[in-house]
């Protein structure tokens, strides 16, 4: 029964792409040429591939968001994808996740039918395979987002110093942002290029920078943007930005020292264990021998 339904659905989707089987109507063919219809696409049939994607996309988004919150990922996927400049939107990514989960579920079901393990193992296969496929893709995006945030935090002192020099040389804030975004090659430069694009779309410099700070989610960037927001109030903005760049560099240096000290302490853990285990053994042997002598008396 299930195979018949899947065969019918597959044939319907396949034949919907054939021109002679699914001929568009005259209204759909003339729709792109009507006034205001250049951005519209013809209406798709009930059994077409577009209608199938329109049905699956909302389900994939809702199910994917709930599973992400269930495993502890609270940050919105749209923010993470925008942070790493991904060309894939939320709907496409969630649909991709759902597809891999379904493929993993089918593979787990086929393996269970072929191997015929215990019911508990079958249940683990059927639940664990799609969950693992979902988590792998989710973890990949989260790792890329964390790596991007770390790279932005490391590049920020240099970018702040460049902005300070340009502002001190007489550049306006918009011109300084555009120059660093065009000439740079790092993650901050790509973000600044997007900031400049948002400024050309009508946002002010401060609004575009605050939008960048919200997406990047870096504490040092929030402080830098708060200083850059004084563009129309401070008379010596270059000096203030330079002071903030030095403060960011000191924070990064302090974080690096903490990481080095933590790793240095972790080195002593196996050394301590290796020294304590023989000592405990040497102390245990005489103690056990003394107990044996006292019990014999």
In brief, what are we looking at here?
The protein has 297 residues and is mostly helical. It has 11 helices and no strands.
Model description:
This protein has eleven helices and no strands. The protein is mainly alpha-helical. The protein has a domain at 150-251: Receptor-associated Protein, CATH 1.20.81. Helix 8 (187-200) crosses helix 9 (205-216). The protein is flat and about 105 Å long. It starts with a helix and ends with a helix.
Rg, Cα atoms, Å: 30 Å
Strand content: under 5%
Structural class: mainly alpha
Q: Main β-sheet: number of strands, strand sense, barrel status?
A: none
Keywords:
mainly alpha; 297 residues; single chain; Receptor-associated Protein
Topology:
Layout: H1 2-16, H2 26-30, H3 49-70, H4 77-83, H5 90-115, H6 119-168, H7 173-183, H8 187-200, H9 205-216, H10 219-228, H11 237-296
Helix pairs in contact: 3-5, 4-6, 5-6, 6-7, 6-11, 7-8, 8-9, 9-10, 10-11
